[in-house]
Structure formats: C-alpha cells, structure tokens
Write a structure and sequence with these properties.
Elements: E1 8-15, E2 21-27, E3 32-39, E4 42-43, E5 46-51, E6 58-63, E7 71-75, E8 80-85, H1 87-93, E9 98-103, E10 113-121, E11 139-141, E12 149-157, E13 169-176, E14 182-190, H2 194-204, E15 228-234, E16 241-247
Parallel strand pairs: 2-13, 3-11, 10-16
Antiparallel strand pairs: 1-2, 3-4, 3-5, 5-6, 6-7, 7-8, 8-9, 10-12, 12-14, 13-14, 15-16
Length: 248
C-alpha cells in the first residue's frame, strides 16, 4: 500500500549482501507514494512523493497537521530545483513563492543524482495517542533501534543508468518519469555522527524560543508527541540538501 493506483511499468530486483533478494515495482509517470518512519500509532512526518504525467518533473511535500500543506519541493527537468510556497499561500502571505532554490547536481560516481536526504533519529519516533488517518495508503518503514538514525534518500536515476543502492540501504519505492528516468526512495539505518548529533542539539535549542501554538511559554522539550520540527539544511557545496524531522 502507499501508492496512487496507476499501472506499474517495470520492476527492480534488489540483491542483498546475504544472498537474498526482493522486488520493488516501478510506478508509471503521474504516480504518487506516501511514506513515513514508524507505524500508524507513532511516526515521523508523513511525506508525499509524486511525479508529473507528461513532463519529467517530480515533487515532494510533507503533511504537518499544525502548519498544513503550504509548501513543496519541486524538482524540474530544467535543473531548477526549489522549495516554494503553494501559489495561494504565497498570495495570502504577500511574499515571494520561492524560499530556497538550487541547481540539479551532476550524477555521482555510482551514476545516480543525489536529490536530498531526510534524517529522523529513532528516539524521535514515539506514539502520539492517535492513529494516522488513511494509514492503509501510507508506506510505513520500521525505524531502527534506539540511538540510531533513519535516513531516507531520494535519488534520480537517469535513463540507461544502472541501479546501485548505497551500502545497507533498502529500496522503498520507485517512480518512473516521463523521459524514462526513475526517482528512487531508499531507507537506511546507522549511527549518527558527532556532527549530526550536534546539529540536532542546536535545532532543538530553538524549542524554547518557539513553543508549540497554544502551549505555555515554558514548554518542556519532547513533552508533546505531536510537536515536530522540519529543518532545511544546505551544505557548503550547495548541492547536499538535508531535511531533519525532529521531535521537539
């Protein structure tokens, strides 16, 4: 479950290091998948990844019950990649639509283009006390054990390039684009680096300055299981995009 019902156009077989293998359907242009770390009763942000029917463009958005779906990540075939408000939201706020923009990077040594990463610490996946609506339409990915880091990878595989998954990564979903290229969603579990732990700590420091709406100004961090923060980070090379999904 978790995919918009459109005909599949192929299949990718993934071989594991232990000798086993599994198959992932490649969805047709115009398809969509929704995915999250966790279970219907406790999870990180719910994401939606979808592609255009007629053009090789694809998009990513997050569903945040507190803030609504007012922005999305757009990956245009022209190489113009951006984070932007929906047009109606920008008009309502009286601001420019584009929040961040960058150019599509060149393919890496393995042949794929690294789009972005979504990082969620396993300890930030907790029960919320409420079951997620439409849970059957979402791909639920089991988080790693305590003190590990879950990472979703988005990769763009150009037409004709072969698929080579990163070490210790599982293929979750695949969407074909109108030009025959393929968007890959992968998930891996590992130990956070000291730099990543420090990044999460600094992001959480903002909690005291930005308590959840309707709560006391003396909000106790991590006391509200539904209060999550989405961060956008860009490395110095401008092409390494990291999104953070943290319990605040």
């Amino acid at each position: 479950m978790g995919a918009k019902q459109r005909p599949r156009v192929g299949m990718i077989r993934v071989n594991r290091a232990n000798g086993s293998s599994y198959d992932v359907d490649v969805q047709a242009p115009g398809s969509a998948v929704r995915f999250a770390i966790g279970t219907p009763d406790g999870h990180g942000f719910v994401w939606r990844l979808w592609s255009s029917v007629h053009t090789p463009d694809f998009y990513l958005a997050v569903r945040d019950g507190r803030k609504g779906n007012d922005s999305k990540y757009s990956f245009h075939a022209s190489g113009d990649w951006r984070l932007q408000y929906e047009r109606s939201e920008a008009q309502a706020l009286g601001v420019h639509r584009v929040l961040e923009s960058w150019e599509r990077p060149m393919p890496a040594a393995h042949g794929a283009i690294e789009v972005l990463r979504i990082m969620t610490p396993a300890d930030d996946v907790v029960e919320t006390g409420a079951t997620e609506p439409d849970a059957g339409k979402i791909i639920w990915v089991e988080p790693g054990p305590t003190r590990t880091l879950n990472v979703f990878f988005l990769q763009l595989l150009p037409t004709g390039a072969s698929f080579s998954p990163p070490p210790n990564a599982d293929l979750v979903a695949a969407l074909q684009l109108a030009d025959g290229s393929t968007v890959l969603l992968l998930h891996s579990i590992g130990k956070p680096t000291h730099i990543e732990d420090d990044m999460f700590r600094r992001l959480r420091q903002l909690t005291s300055e930005n308590p959840p709406p309707g709560t006391s100004a003396k909000y106790v961090p991590r006391s509200d299981p539904t209060y999550r923060s989405l961060g956008f980070l860009r490395a110095a090379n401008a092409h390494d995009i990291v999104l953070t999904d943290l319990l605040m």
